[in-house]
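hey can u check if this looks right to u? its 292 residues, i copy pasted from the old doc so theres a chance i mangled smth
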Amino acid sequence: MKKLFVIVVAAVILGGLYFAYKHDPSPNKASDTMAGMNMAGMMMGGDASRRYTVSFATNPANPKPNQDTQLKFKIYDAASGNEVTDYSAVMTKLMHLVIVNSNLDYFEHIHPAQNGSEFTVTTSFPKADNYHLYINFQPNSATEQQIGFSLPVGVPASHTSSHIPLDSTLTKTFGNYKVTLSSASSQFNANDMNNMAEVLNFHIVDAKTGQPVSDLQPYLGAFGHLVMINEQTYKYVHIHPVASDNTMAGGPDVKFLPAALFDKIEPGIYRVFAQFQHNDMVFVADFTIKIN
């Protein structure tokens, strides 16, 4: 049977998801598949006591860079072992998948499609590297779940990849947009975040004219999506805006509250990826920040 790899993970946050990532490099000899298991329910609502496991496979089994690769996820009730087929939409989708590479200079947010008890999506990876995959989904009558996997593509370099340096300025241009990242306290403080006292604000203006962009379009049910990943531990935070009213125009300011519910946001260097939609196009604003 095809050789794959094993991961165990855990996570939770308020207003999004907080993901604690742990890698077990040993292969799963029993099933010879890639598998994950969640340790805690996500979000509020539903039965938080229910647990799930996920099997993960790729086709081809050993993907190479720039090769179409099908990713396959199958979800099981951990108590009964039964396959799960009924889900509730999370921000308009039944499953979200975020993919990053080892030095966090690559980011992809895509949506596997359900086919019976299996979710599949085809993508490709730009270079040989170790990739980190994070999925979230919500079985009916349960809380939202998030589970993660590690996937080597090609032959990754043996040395540790260098990370993106801290941004010297938090105003950057991304295509047609200039985005400024700030916090209410003019700093990024883990204790304030964990105490729900730290709001991250993204101010968006037209890069050519400097005029505020006040007509953002809802993307996947919100005016923005924010992912934060610790560059050392790969702990993962997925956050939605503090308020989202789809009947009104969004921007030029979009605010996020990166508060953890069951775990704490730890000090460290984080890569920040924010997604917004304007004029029917989605763009990503990425920053590298230090949380004290």
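The longest helix spans residues 190-194.
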